[in-house]
Design goal:
By secondary structure, this protein is α/β, with parallel strands linked by helices. The protein has 11 helices and 8 strands. It has a single domain, classed as Thiamin diphosphate (ThDP)-binding fold, Pyr/PP domains (Rossmann fold, 3-Layer(aba) Sandwich), CATH 3.40.50.
Length: 338
């Protein structure tokens, strides 16, 4: 695996078609979540929601690099990961609105998104709980010889959870094809990660304990994310074992829809807003010769797709009450427990 320092000086060649695809992916994610935020305040999104506004480059960079049969495991901040792996936008929006056409029949909601048909293996509301599960999926792929790679995304707070250390240790011991990606947005809910962690890089600085290299990257630079993702996936797919990556990024809003995020210094927020991955990448594309009209067309298409998905979700029916106790137990019901 190439070190973070080497990766920053040896970027891989990325075609203009791939760059425009990644730009579109980030726009889809941004506009989808902005719409979901508005729908929440209309009372249409049930329960709470956790947005990844500002963190789109991590999800898009990895989704663009992953093979179709690779597997994604993410946290409750998982709208963008699920969408960009290929979950239909209209069905994803319907899930947030609790409609029967949702990807989980309207019963999972914002924090429990799953679409195994596109390798989106679930959003997990228990911090760190999915890391051993991702290791298990990687073990299964290894046993079957499928060359699949499991990729587990998690926040910086999960690095202080036992499951993080257990999953890394087992993955290293068994040489599993799994990539662990810490989306370090500097805050574990309302607490700065640095206030409760003994090392400056909560994921990367722990790598050596498991015989791994700590890879740190700028999670707001989608080309850097894509470069590291391609190399990490190839490393794991080739039988060289797990990779641990720490992507430095920042959420634009609070922890959840109920959190105004006022605990963060204004100057810190402003500095990170200036590093917004989407306008930064647009400027880079324009500087490389991509026509402004081309980028405007991509943005208009993303906006139209989100509006169409929203309209379809608004008009979809709510689940039939008779489905309430289905898909809960292995046999589809709970009668066997009575």
């Amino acid at each position: 695996m190439t070190s973070a320092a080497e990766a920053s000086t040896s970027p891989i060649a990325i075609s203009i078609e791939k760059k425009l695809e990644m730009y579109r992916m980030m726009l889809d994610a941004r506009l989808f979540e902005e719409k979901a935020h508005k729908l929440f305040f209309e009372g249409l999104v049930k329960g709470t929601s956790h947005l990844a506004l500002g963190q789109e480059a991590v999800a898009a960079g990895f989704a663009a690099a992953m093979r179709e049969d690779d597997l994604t495991f993410c946290t409750y901040r998982g709208h963008t990961h699920t969408l960009l792996r290929g979950a239909p936008m209209d069905r994803l929006m319907a899930e947030l609105l609790g409609r029967s056409t949702g990807i989980c029949g309207g019963k999972g909601g914002s924090m429990h998104l799953t679409d195994v048909t596109v390798g989106a293996m679930g959003s997990y509301a228990i911090v760190g709980a999915h890391l051993p599960i991702a290791a298990g999926a990687a073990w299964a792929a290894q046993a079957r010889g499928t060359d699949q790679v499991a990729v587990a995304f998690f926040g910086d707070g999960a690095t202080n959870i036992g499951a993080f250390h257990e999953a890394l240790n087992l993955a290293a011991v068994w040489n599993l094809p799994v990539v662990f990606v810490c989306e370090n947005n500097l805050y574990m809910e309302y607490t700065p990660i640095g206030a409760v962690t003994a090392v400056p890089h909560p994921a990367a600085d722990r790598a050596a304990a498991y015989g791994l290299e700590g890879v740190i990257l700028d999670g707001n630079d989608i080309e850097a994310v894509y470069t590291i993702a391609m190399r990490a996936l190839e490393h794991a797919r080739s039988g060289n074992g797990p990779v641990l990556i720490e992507a430095k990024t920042y959420r634009h809003g609070g922890h959840s829809r109920a959190d105004p995020g006022k605990y963060r210094p204004d100057e810190e927020v402003e500095a990170w807003l200036q590093r917004d991955p989407i306008p930064a990448f647009r400027s880079r594309l324009e500087a490389s010769g991509v026509a402004t009209a081309t980028l405007d067309q991509i943005e208009a298409a993303s906006d139209a797709a989100v509006e169409a998905a929203t309209e379809a979700a608004r008009n979809a029916p709510y689940p039939d009450p008779t489905t309430l106790e289905t898909e809960v137990w292995a046999d589809g019901g709970s009668a066997w427990r009575n």
